[in-house]
Amino acid sequence: MRGALLLALMTLPMLASAARAETVVAVLQGLDKTTARVSTFDAPVGQPVRFGRLVITARACVKHPPEEEPESAAFLQIDELRQGERNAEIAQRIFSGWMFASSPALSALENPIYDVSVLDCKSDSTAAAESGSVGK
């Protein structure tokens, strides 16, 4: 397990450079522990998305090719919005690092209210095709 993880970490920069030609979207899952609601949402790389009081920015998202062992990983920066003086919202960084789909506990967000984990990485063209084919 440790050897496979080390190999995955070493190949992530190469995969990230190969994926730069397309816009990549991190598929994330969030749990609000106060309401017990689980949400699945897309986070395009470089664009902040909101989940409750969290602002999540995916900086990179990589996925192994189909012929290799399945693994997706995303580098996430997560800020929590808090009330400051005069009701101004202040963002405080509570997580910055890689999260792995196959090992969510390896690098997890430690927060009493929210859990966030990586499910997958996909290109925005794949995301558009999937969302267009699903009848909602």
Topology:
Layout: H1 2-18, E1 24-32, E2 37-44, E3 48-51, E4 54-63, E5 72-83, E6 89-100, E7 114-123, H2 124-133
Antiparallel strand pairs: 1-2, 1-7, 3-4, 4-5, 5-6
Q: How would you describe this protein?
A:
The structure is a single chain. With 136 residues, the chain is of the alpha+beta class. It has one domain. The chain is 20% helix and 48% strand. It is built from two helices and seven strands, in the order αβββββββα. It has helices at 2-18, 124-133, and strands at 24-32, 37-44, 48-51, 54-63, 72-83, 89-100, 114-123. It has a four-stranded antiparallel β-sheet with strand order 3-4-5-6. It has a three-stranded antiparallel β-sheet with strand order 2-1-7. A hairpin with a 4-residue loop joins β1 (24-32) and β2. The chain is globular. The N and C termini lie far apart (40 Å). The model is unreliable at 1-11, 14-21 and 132-136 (pLDDT under 50).
